[in-house]
Amino acid sequence: MSAVTPLLITTGEPAGIGPELVLMLAAEGRLGADVVAVGDPTMLAERAARLGLEVEIVVAGRGEPAAHGAHLAVMPVVLRAPSTPGVCDPANAAYVIETLALGVRECLAGRAGGIVTAPISKAAIVEGGYPGFTGHTEWLRDACGVDEVVMLLATECALHAQAPDWRASRDLRVALASTHLPLREVADAITFEGLTRVAHILARDLTRQFGIACPRIAVCGLNPHAGEGGHLGREEIDTIIPAIEHLRGEGLDVRGPYPADTLFTPRHLAEVDAVLAMYHDQGLSVLKYAGFGQAANITLGLPLVRTSVDHGTALDLAGKGVASAESLAVAVSLARRLSARAKVPLS
């Protein structure tokens, strides 16, 4: 590999669009010389040929690319079974997990500056022998040995600017108090301790990774109308408000709880740097409406930089060359900036 500390991209579910999105960016010269893919070189070469993409696949550290033309350096992980676009094979679950594990090892050892993850199929991984798997975020938490992480999604302009013009651009930063849970389990997952931990991680990393000195965080209620004074649920009274008051007492600028159906409006968003939603679809439905395909997922609280796309495997599009690589491009750009910022101590 190059003397430059690389960024790594895991190619995700081999039957999904992840491999071709990586290849599309490489063919267009949009990855940069610092990016190294993690995946099966043979599969990537076959997928490039299938899509008519002229990309030279080079095993990282085993030779130099041709002087001309697009190329993609790859840290090799071998598929367990042949892969057909659009058809997940649980036999490749171990392959997907190994690409993630290799990326984490390289980052923790200081040999990589960050990891960008292409989409995976949770179902295929569970069916392939990993019954406790619920997603990238939780797997990375456990692999890195930390107690808590926070999923933050942000639309493209919000990734660049410390204070986006919410009214003009509809840009959002949305963090989640709970992630991949069945809806009936969400209320029990919202606890005083959990909310305070998530808010601390969010505030710290908005400063550490985004350079916002005093982050302003708006908190959604769990229930309609934020509980309507207890008439539509007591989670706000019993849990969310006490957590907010405790966090304010510690000096954090945490506001709410606000009814989710009115918080995501320009008047409220103009006054904050991020929104803390109580559950996955409460926050991400709005964000993806505002900027789907132009947003990235960031995992806060890890000892490494991790970003990802804002979409899934899109099996129905795989192998057709019609999927958009824009979210992956945003995720790569963000990982590069966060990696550079991580090398600069806070004053």
UniProtKB/TrEMBL annotation:
Keywords: Cobalt, Cytoplasm, Magnesium, Metal-binding, NAD, NADP, Oxidoreductase, Pyridoxine biosynthesis, Zinc. A divalent metal cation binds at residues 180, 225, 280. It holds the Pfam family PdxA. Its cofactor is Zn(2+); Mg(2+); Co(2+). Coiled coil: none annotated. Catalyzes the NAD(P)-dependent oxidation of 4-(phosphooxy)-L-threonine (HTP) into 2-amino-3-oxo-4-(phosphooxy)butyric acid which spontaneously decarboxylates to form 3-amino-2-oxopropyl phosphate (AHAP). Homodimer. The active site is located at the dimer interface. This is 4-hydroxythreonine-4-phosphate dehydrogenase. It comes from Vreelandella malpeensis.
